Amino acid sequence: MSNVVKYSALGIPFGMGYPLTFGGNSKTFKQVMDFGITIKNNIRNLLLTQKGEKDYDIEFGTDLTKILFQFQIGDPSLETAVEETIRSAIETYLPGVKVDALIITPLDTKDGAITVKLDFSADFTDPLNLEFVVKATGVEDSGTTSNAGGSPDSADKLV
To answer: How do beta strands 138-147 and 128-135 pair?
Structure first.
């Protein structure tokens, strides 16, 4: 992790922004200069990928939409299964990330959807969070991302 400090000081980007957009007047994708935002993007991509979607690693991702078909909204087993698939995916594929809090809330719809809010931290980052909606038809990024203080992170707003 010592490279994180070195790369930050040198102005070397850690990855591409999410969603993929062109950066400024250049012909390249927007670059992320903050390690915490790169971690957040990696978590988002991991959790929004369904197991079996990635050809060469069918265990990559989560079973979030599959779980909604297995359990009724309000069933305590639903929250347990969602938490298990998220924690397992992060422990396996992002071992440097610590899940500080995971809040699962049913939505007020007939679709049988839930909202998942994940507070996390990693080395060299301030605590951050990520929020998304899981429906039986798929997972939607709610566009809500902020740091632990609750203020929107302008470099990570979804367009």
So the answer is: antiparallel
Q: How far is CA 42 from CA 2, 24, 94, 97, in A?
A: 20, 23, 8, 10
Is 41 in contact with 20 (CB distance < 8 Å)? no
Predicted TM-score (pTM) of this structure:
0.69
Buried b (16+ CB within 10 A) or exposed e, 94-128: beebebeebebeeeeeeebbbbbebbbbbeebeeb
Q: Domains, the chain, ranges and CATH?
A: 2-150 (3.10.450.40)
pLDDT tens digits for range 61-104:
999 888 988 888 878 898 999 999 999 999 999 988 889 999 99
Give me 15's structure tokens.
């990855």
Which of 117, 93, 92, 120 minimizes the C-alpha distance to 35? 120
| DSSP code at position 17 | -
3-state secondary structure of 89: helix
